[in-house]
Structure to design on (225 residues):
């Protein structure tokens, strides 16, 4: 059974800092990996989707990498801002059950 | 651009009552999903519909039924609500299965007393 782990569970940084969020998964036979943002009491917003054949994706200040062989992905946030404060979730797509398996999330707080 | 719309946003049920959670998407997506989110358990798939006319069980289907009414709408029904079904429910859609980006609704917070 695929398991997805995100470390750390919570992170607090000062504004302007570059930071890395980690995601690991146990089964490397994945379709893709997706990073989401969730604000309190809200739904999930898709940030980046990396297909299994890709190594990384970039959108603005966000860069996500994927290393299937080691079962890891990282989300790099450059020049963090208070508006980046949210919970970040990674999810692995795999064919079994046509579903996404989610990690527990990293709760990020960026202090002004 | 509404995206994925869920109704209601909040609901309180008594044990044994039934209700249907509604979901509609306006992105012409083929695939739709229902997840539940619980503290310490993350998001788990209840049911999905890969395309109009098909539905399949996910990780935690017991106690739920679904209907893909048409391409736009995918409803989740609780026939006899139990306190263990207290959760936040999210509907999601994607253009075509897992190869494409998933879009989520704002969620329905359900409490069963």
């Amino acid at each position: 059974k695929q398991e997805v782990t995100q470390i750390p569970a919570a992170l607090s940084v000062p504004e302007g800092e570059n930071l890395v969020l980690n995601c690991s998964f146990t089964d490397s036979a994945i379709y893709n990996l997706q990073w989401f943002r969730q604000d309190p009491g809200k739904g999930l917003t898709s940030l980046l989707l990396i297909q299994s054949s890709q190594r990384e994706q970039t959108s603005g200040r966000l860069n996500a990498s994927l290393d299937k062989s080691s079962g890891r992905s990282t989300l790099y946030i450059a020049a963090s801002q208070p508006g980046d404060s949210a919970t970040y979730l990674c999810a692995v797509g795999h064919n079994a059950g046509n579903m996404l398996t989610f990690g527990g999330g990293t709760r990020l707080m960026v202090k002004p | 651009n509404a995206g994925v719309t869920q109704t209601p946003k909040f609901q309180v049920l008594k044990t044994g009552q039934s209700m249907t959670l509604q979901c509609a998407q306006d992105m012409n997506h083929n695939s739709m999903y229902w997840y539940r989110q619980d503290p310490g358990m993350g998001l788990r798939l209840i049911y999905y519909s890969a395309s109009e006319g098909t539905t399949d069980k996910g990780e935690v289907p017991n106690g739920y039924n679904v209907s893909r009414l048409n391409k736009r709408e995918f409803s989740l029904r609780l026939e006899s609500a139990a306190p263990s079904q207290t959760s936040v429910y999210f509907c999601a859609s994607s253009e075509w299965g897992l190869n494409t980006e998933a879009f989520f609704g704002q969620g329905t917070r359900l409490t069963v007393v």
Remarks:
- Chain A touches chain B through 25 residues (CB under 8 Å).
- The longest strand of chain A covers residues 86-94.
- Chain A has no helices and eleven strands.
- The mean pLDDT of chain A is 94.
